[in-house]
Amino acid sequence: MRVGLHALGIGSGANPAVITSVASTAEERGFATLWAGEHVVMVDRPGSRYPYSEDGRIAVKSDTDWLDPLVLFGFLARATSRIRLATGILLLPEHNPVAAAKTVASIDVLSLGRFTLGVGVGWSAEEFEALGVPFEGRARRTEEYVEAMRVLWRDDVASYSGTHVHFDRVRCYPKPPRRAVPVVFGGNGDLALRRVAEHGDGWYGFNVPLDELPGRLEVLHAACQAAGRAQASVDTAVALVGVQPSDLPQLEALGVMEVVLVEAPPADPDEATEWVTELARRWNVTPPS
Question: How many domains does the chain have?
Answer without folding.
Answer: 1
